[in-house]
Amino acid sequence: MNSLPKCPQCSSEYTYEDGEVFVCPECAHEWPKVAASAAEEVRVVRDAVGNILQDGDSVTVIKDLKVKGSSTVVKVGTKVKSIRLVDGDHDIDCKIDGIGAMGLKSEFVKKA
Q1: How many CB atoms lie under 10 A from the CB of residue 15?
Q2: What predicted TM-score, i.e. pTM, was given to this entire model?
Q3: Do 57 and 46 form a contact (C-beta atoms < 8 A)?
Protein backbone atom coordinates (compact mmCIF):
# COMPACT_ATOMS: atom_id res chain seq x y z
CA MET A 1 0.00 0.00 0.00
CA ASN A 2 1.40 3.39 -1.02
CA SER A 3 1.27 5.94 1.81
CA LEU A 4 2.81 8.74 -0.23
CA PRO A 5 0.58 11.73 -1.09
CA LYS A 6 -0.91 12.17 -4.55
CA CYS A 7 0.55 14.80 -6.84
CA PRO A 8 -1.09 18.19 -6.16
CA GLN A 9 -0.60 19.15 -9.83
CA CYS A 10 -2.09 16.17 -11.71
CA SER A 11 -3.43 13.92 -8.88
CA SER A 12 -1.22 11.02 -9.93
CA GLU A 13 -0.76 8.35 -7.28
CA TYR A 14 2.64 7.25 -8.62
CA THR A 15 4.72 9.73 -6.61
CA TYR A 16 8.06 8.91 -5.02
CA GLU A 17 10.48 10.45 -2.53
CA ASP A 18 13.75 12.01 -3.64
CA GLY A 19 15.69 13.41 -0.69
CA GLU A 20 13.65 16.24 0.85
CA VAL A 21 11.02 16.41 -1.93
CA PHE A 22 8.24 14.35 -3.46
CA VAL A 23 8.36 13.87 -7.23
CA CYS A 24 5.61 13.01 -9.72
CA PRO A 25 6.94 10.93 -12.64
CA GLU A 26 3.96 11.77 -14.86
CA CYS A 27 4.08 15.59 -14.81
CA ALA A 28 7.60 16.09 -13.27
CA HIS A 29 6.18 18.27 -10.49
CA GLU A 30 8.29 18.46 -7.32
CA TRP A 31 7.13 19.69 -3.89
CA PRO A 32 8.75 19.70 -0.44
CA LYS A 33 7.89 17.06 2.15
CA VAL A 34 7.22 19.67 4.87
CA ALA A 35 4.36 21.18 2.85
CA ALA A 36 2.71 17.77 2.54
CA SER A 37 2.99 17.03 6.26
CA ALA A 38 1.62 20.49 7.19
CA ALA A 39 -1.42 19.94 4.98
CA GLU A 40 -2.18 16.60 6.69
CA GLU A 41 -2.06 18.14 10.20
CA VAL A 42 -5.07 20.38 9.60
CA ARG A 43 -8.01 18.76 11.38
CA VAL A 44 -11.52 20.14 11.08
CA VAL A 45 -14.18 19.23 13.65
CA ARG A 46 -17.78 19.78 12.56
CA ASP A 47 -20.99 19.66 14.57
CA ALA A 48 -24.13 17.68 13.64
CA VAL A 49 -25.29 20.43 11.26
CA GLY A 50 -21.91 20.88 9.57
CA ASN A 51 -20.66 24.06 11.27
CA ILE A 52 -16.92 24.16 12.01
CA LEU A 53 -16.15 24.05 15.74
CA GLN A 54 -13.22 25.82 17.42
CA ASP A 55 -11.80 25.97 20.94
CA GLY A 56 -13.89 28.23 23.18
CA ASP A 57 -17.16 27.85 21.23
CA SER A 58 -20.49 27.23 22.93
CA VAL A 59 -22.56 24.26 21.81
CA THR A 60 -26.00 22.80 22.53
CA VAL A 61 -26.67 19.08 23.01
CA ILE A 62 -29.16 17.74 20.41
CA LYS A 63 -29.85 14.31 21.94
CA ASP A 64 -30.27 12.88 25.45
CA LEU A 65 -26.88 11.41 26.38
CA LYS A 66 -26.37 8.85 29.13
CA VAL A 67 -23.31 9.49 31.27
CA LYS A 68 -21.20 6.33 31.33
CA GLY A 69 -20.77 4.92 34.85
CA SER A 70 -23.57 7.04 36.27
CA SER A 71 -27.35 7.17 36.26
CA THR A 72 -27.45 10.82 35.16
CA VAL A 73 -28.42 12.02 31.70
CA VAL A 74 -27.36 15.12 29.76
CA LYS A 75 -30.68 16.44 28.45
CA VAL A 76 -31.48 17.83 25.01
CA GLY A 77 -30.90 21.57 24.89
CA THR A 78 -28.15 21.63 27.51
CA LYS A 79 -25.81 24.49 26.64
CA VAL A 80 -22.09 23.82 27.05
CA LYS A 81 -19.71 26.80 27.14
CA SER A 82 -15.98 27.01 26.39
CA ILE A 83 -15.35 23.67 24.70
CA ARG A 84 -11.86 22.31 23.98
CA LEU A 85 -11.19 20.23 20.87
CA VAL A 86 -9.07 17.12 21.42
CA ASP A 87 -7.95 14.08 19.43
CA GLY A 88 -9.65 10.77 20.05
CA ASP A 89 -13.06 9.13 19.93
CA HIS A 90 -14.70 11.95 21.88
CA ASP A 91 -13.42 15.09 20.19
CA ILE A 92 -14.82 17.68 22.65
CA ASP A 93 -13.69 18.15 26.27
CA CYS A 94 -16.00 20.31 28.37
CA LYS A 95 -17.45 20.99 31.79
CA ILE A 96 -21.23 20.66 32.21
CA ASP A 97 -22.98 22.35 35.13
CA GLY A 98 -24.28 19.75 37.59
CA ILE A 99 -22.34 16.89 36.00
CA GLY A 100 -18.69 17.96 35.75
CA ALA A 101 -15.93 17.37 33.22
CA MET A 102 -16.69 15.01 30.36
CA GLY A 103 -16.01 14.24 26.72
CA LEU A 104 -18.61 14.64 23.97
CA LYS A 105 -18.76 13.55 20.37
CA SER A 106 -19.22 16.38 17.90
CA GLU A 107 -22.03 14.51 16.14
CA PHE A 108 -24.33 15.07 19.16
CA VAL A 109 -23.94 18.84 19.45
CA LYS A 110 -24.68 21.93 17.40
CA LYS A 111 -22.99 25.30 17.57
CA ALA A 112 -24.89 27.77 19.75
Answers
A1: 21
A2: 0.62
A3: no
